[in-house]
Amino acid sequence: VIALPRNLLVNPPETLDIQGPILLNQAYLFGTKGMGHYEGSGYGAGSLAETVYNSFGLKADQYVVVDFHAFVKFVDAIGGIEVDLPTYVDDRPYGYFPQGKQTLSGDEALYLARIRTKYSDLVRISNQTTVLKAVLNRVKEPGVLIKLPGLYDTMISSVLTDVTPEQVNTMLCLLRKIDSEDVVFYGTPEDLMTNSNFFIPNMSAEMNVYQWGQPFVNWLYESLLEEVK
Fold first, then answer.
1. Which of 2, 142, 148, 187 is the most exposed place for a label (fewest CB within 10 A)?
2. pLDDT digit string (tens) for 27-70?
3. How far is CA 38 from CA 11, 21, 34, 46, in A?
């Protein structure tokens, strides 16, 4: 699993009618329904996938988009998640998470995953990775695993995806056989990117971005294909 920083500087594909360069997360924004910049399939997810392919040559097979409400609802439905934070996360006066093990509700998990006021985007990605690992560990518990088919039926209306019900059933069967240690999360090495301010035409403003080169692309391929090799 690789999380791409939202402020990576990229060029939009020809199918996305917006002046570039743009931030990576803008590829999703401008592709959403009603924006009028993208006519491909999948709306924002499709636009983002094409941008990732245009920039890095990595093709997404399918997509799943989960909004904040669905995420909170899902975490609460599985009884919360347990995280073990290596250090405290301080976003006071809005929120604070102490170091060590703690059980989070859906709202708390979402808040931890979104904190970025006092931290860099890479720290936010690290927090999100912690949350995702905790979700994976939780859903593999036998008492939760048997509930997943029913949860899927109640939540599918809150999720945008091109994954079919048959594929979901296959994934649920595979989930029983996958050890948590088999799912590897990679954090983007900061030394493979250059943090700087760059003028973004569609915003008519300078934005803080991550610029990258071939070493970053090489790292993406090496990370994704390591276990396959």
1. 142
2. 999 999 999 999 999 999 999 999 999 999 999 999 999 999 99
3. 15, 16, 9, 9
Q: What are 39's two structure tokens?
A: 């006519």
Q: Which amino acid is located at 32 in the chain?
A: T
**Cis geometry, peptide bond prior to residue 93 (ω within 30 degrees of 0):** yes
| Pairing relationship of beta strands 81-85 and 64-66 according to DSSP bridges | unpaired
Region 3-16 average pLDDT: 95
For the chain, the three-class secondary structure string (H helix, E strand, C coil) is CECCCCCEEECCCCCECCCCCEEHHHHHHHHCCCCCCECCCCHHHHHHHHHHHHHHCCCCCCCEEECHHHHHHHHHHCCCEEEEECCCEEECCCEEECCEEEEECHHHHHHHHHCCCCCCHHHHHHHHHHHHHHHHHHHCCHHHHCCHHHHHHHHHHHEEECCCHHHHHHHHHHHCCCCHHHCCCECCCHHHEEEEEEEEHHHCEEEEEEEECHHHHHHHHHHHHCCCC
Closest-CA residue to 58 (of 20, 18, 24): 24
